[in-house]
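Long-time lurker. I teach an intro course on protein structure, and each term I like to show students one example going from raw sequence to a predicted 3D structure in token notation. This year I'd like something fresh instead of my usual example. Would anyone be willing to generate the tokens for the chain below so I can use it in lecture? Attribution to the forum is fine with me.
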Amino acid sequence: LKTNAEIRNQSGMNVHPRIIGSGPFLDENLSLKEEIGLINLELAPPTTNYIELFGNKDIHLLMSRIEGTQNVLLEAQAHGLPVAACDVGGVRDAMLRRGDGKGLLLPQDPTPEEAARQILKWFPIAMKAAPASRHRFVESKFSTEALAANARQIYSGVSGMQPSMRGRTKK
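-- Reply from a regular --
Happy to contribute to a lecture. Here you go:
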């Protein structure tokens, strides 16, 4: 929330952040919303409707300090949205990081001011990129077919990842 407020402060843009879902930080988010004057913050109930999740967004911003493989980044990119996220857990692998449509990989724990500066620099470029490049990235790396092909390569030794030879002696 502080990064969203800082984006507003640095750019003068009318920022409309949205948090979807509920959880243990709801009351804390409501208090912080008032404290930092982020009056346009929308707290929406959980949903699986992709139009509600991604339909009217410009970017998907994920400022988590802890993550696994972040499916919401894959889902947002599959819908063509630019994504910006902190470099934690599996975020680096779940983000298009090169070429047209690349996301913004922020440091692990940036200050709201630094994150806002980087986002504002990246945002105009991200908005010009074709949404299809993000969709192609997700399809090529995370579709059922791509994941199955990768698993076949790993288990057959084709990918260069071979079982450990440690502890074996040459004859």
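Some talking points for your students: The two ends are 63 Å apart (CA to CA). The longest strand covers residues 83-86.
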